[in-house]
Amino acid sequence: MFGKMKFIVAGLSLASIVMIAPQVRADDAPPEKKPAKKDGGGPKGDRSKMLTDELAKLNLTDDQKKKIDPIVEKLKDDMHKLMTDDSVQGDDKKKKGMEIMKAAMDEINAVLTPSSRPR
């Protein structure tokens, strides 16, 4: 059971690192702009899709989905606010992002049951 929990935590931790990493790189060179994908994704859309894909792998009931969807939306909003907040920089931004992700993970884990964990 703990191995399955590690899988979920690892997947969402990866998602948080991918979300935060571009923001903590050196300021000496502007980031390279990539064209947006036709599905409206672009780099940030891909990160959100990654999280959604990980959650889709779980065996969630409709009730669990209704409880988790607002958690994910709040996570996306909080991360967007953090990434656009110029008053938080470098390691502080990374630390705050990890706190936001951990809080969301704790909420999601509270909703999960043994039958909704990956097999």
Give a structural overview.
This protein is an all-alpha fold and 119 residues long. It has one domain. Helices cover 66% and strands 0% of the residues. It contains four helices and no strands. It has helices at residues 2-20, 42-56, 62-84, 90-111. Mean pLDDT is 74; it is low at 24-28 and 36-42.
**Roughly how many Å is the radius of gyration?**
15 Å
Overall pLDDT metric: 74
Categorize the overall geometry: elongated
Number of domains: 1
Q: Which structural traits does this protein have?
A:
mainly alpha; elongated
Which helices and strands appear, and what pairs or packs with what?
Layout: H1 2-20, H2 42-56, H3 62-84, H4 90-111
Helix pairs in contact: 1-2, 1-4, 3-4
Short description:
Helices cover 66% and strands 0% of the residues.
